[in-house]
Each structure stands twice: as C-alpha cells, then as structure tokens.
Amino acid sequence: MAAMTDRYAVFGHPIAHSKSPHIHAAFARQTGQDMTYEAILAPLDGFAASVAQFIVVGGRGANITVPFKEQAFALANRLSPRAQRAGAVNTLLFDADGILGDNTDGAGLVADLTRNLNCPLAGKRILLVGAGGAARGVIEPLLDQKPSALVIANRTVSRAQELAGLFGHGVTACGFDAADTPFDLVINATAASLAGELPPLSPRVFTADTLAYDMMYGRDTPFLSFARTHGAATADGLGMLVEQAAEAFYLWRGVRPDTAPVIAALRA
Ligand code: ATR
Questions:
Q1: What is the mean pLDDT of the chain?
Q2: Is the CB of 134 under 6 A from ligand 1?
Q3: How many structural domains are present in the chain?
Q4: Residue 189 Cα, ligand 1 centroid: separation in angstroms?
Q5: Is the Cβ–Cβ distance between 212 and 198 less than 8 Å?
Q6: Of 30, 77, 120, 244, which sits with the fewest C-beta atoms within 10 Å of its C-beta?
Q7: Which of 82, 103, 124 is at the close of a domain?
Q8: Is the pTM of this model over 0.90?
Q9: Ligand 1 mean position to 152 CA, how many Å?
C-alpha cells in the first residue's frame, strides 16, 4: 500500500489571507519533502474538534494562529519549555504519544533580527511595546540573546508589570510616558497596527542607531513611519512570519529550509 502523503495545516479564524500555505509549499518544494499544507477555518467554538478531525484524516502537524493560540496550549498533552514560558502554542506535532505543543514565534523573531537584519542582540537595550500574548511569546527567546536591558512598555501598566514578573530580573515594566530614553531596538508587539493606530511612544526612544520592528507585516504601519520620521531604521514582521514557519517545518520534518528566497518572493 502506498504511504499517505503527510498533511499539515494552519488553523485560525479568519484564515483566508494566511500566507502560511504558500510559505510551507515553498519549503516543501525546496527540500523535496512529500507533504501537503492547507488553511483550515476552525469555528470559533470548535477549535479542538477541528484539530481532532484533522488528526483522523492524516494530519501530522499544524500551525495555530489568532485566536486559538491559548486553546492550542490547553489542547497539547506535552509542551516544549518555550511554549510553556510563552503561555501559548503556535505549532502542534501529532504523534503516537499525542499532541506536542511548541511555540516558534520568538525563535522566528530572533532569527529575523539576528540573521536577516544583521542586528545582534547581546548587550543591546530592547524596548518591547505591548504586554499581550504576542509580547509574551517573544520575551524568553529575546532574553536568551543576553540583551543589557529588556523594558516592557504598555498602555495598561499593570499588564506590563505582571508580564515582567513572570520573567524575573533583567525585565522591567513601565507605561508609555516613562519610556523616554534611547533604545537599540524597539519592537511593536501591540495590536495597535491592526487598527491603524500609533502607540503613544516618546520620540526619544528612537535614534539614528535604533531599529524599529513591527511584528505586523504587509503594510507601513503608523509605528514604523513614526520611527522613521525620528531617524530610526525600520523592519516589518514578514521575516518573522517566514522564520517562525521555518522553525515549525524543522520540528515536523527535521530539515531546515532556506528562508531568504521565500522572504524575497513574498516581498516581490
Ligand atoms: P495579542 O495576543 O495580539 O498580544 P492582546 O493580548 O489583546 O493581543 O494584547 C494586545 C496588546 O496591544 C496589549 O498590550 C494592548 O494594550 P493594553 O494592555 O493596554 O490593552 C495593546 N494595544 C492594543 N491597541 C492599542 C493601541 N491603540 N495603543 C497602544 N496599545 C494598544
């Protein structure tokens, strides 16, 4: 009997505009992996059932996006240490032992910063803007790079303080008005860009040596144009998207795809 082609998918709601099927198809072609990858719109009240159904029909792994990353965390019966610290799961692996939950978002961000953007993080001052799930998912991998400071600034200061408290020393919290000294790297992990809004940051966080990074991709956000106006270099989150996908692909297939041509094709 011929072996079934391994199936993978991304689950989200909405999901129609996801670039993940395109990215993983490119990785599979490049590395000669026999697999399929599809986008699945899970009902808002039916995520777990949707995943269970996919496993029955031959699913071997999945990516998870908004709004299911916390539900995926709860669904997994094993968690990688980085998923545990992130409190959310963006990658599932289905095997004989059940469901492994991992989180490749932070590794994707760090890979994009250090490899693609040539921005080493050791000894750097990092300002992380936002204190929701997107921010939490990247803190541990950023700390692993040994920055000299990681400051979380958030509109609701108490959320930033709670988040900093989860990670211990080296991480501090403040409100937007208190973040007013220069940083080497400013990462926008708020949902403000989605709404076309600008987090009310002080322009003093930016210098000509600052990299401003928006985790959102696909458009020039108010955050990026504000940073550019104040002299900073800028980057959107497209590289992070491709790098987190590559990290998931490696978990599933044991092969590391070359991300550069895939990022270039998406930009073109
Ligand atoms: P996610 O999982 O995408 O991080 P979330 O947990 O709802 O979503 O968190 C959204 C983050 O964006 C929060 O840090 C939120 O600030 P508050 O904690 O004060 O709500 C931030 N945010 C959303 N809209 C914003 C805006 N217009 N300006 C600044 N921060 C904003």
A1: 97
A2: yes
A3: 2
A4: 8
A5: no
A6: 77
A7: 103
A8: yes
A9: 12
Ligand 1 atom closest to 195 (CA): 27
Q: What is the mean pLDDT of residues 192-219?
A: 96
Which neighbouring-strand residues pair with 39? 10
Q: What's the rounded mean pLDDT across residues 65-81? A: 97
First vs last C-alpha separation in the chain:
42
> Which residues are designated catalytic?
69
Ligand 1 lined by 132 (C-beta under 6 Å) = yes
Mark 152-176 as b/e (b = at least 16 C-beta within 10 Å).
Answer: bbbeebebbbebbeebeeebebbeb
Model confidence band, residue 168 (pLDDT cutoffs 50, 70, 90):
confident
Q: Could you give the strand order of the β-sheet that contains 171-174, starting from the edge strand earlier in sequence?
A: 171-174, 149-153, 125-129, 185-188, 211-214, 233-235
Ligand 1 in reach of 137 Cβ (< 6 A): no
- Any ligand 1 atom below 6 A from CB of 127: no
221 and 143 in a common domain: yes
In the block, residue with structure tokens 């929701």: 132
> What's the pLDDT band for 4 if we cut at 50, 70, 90?
confident
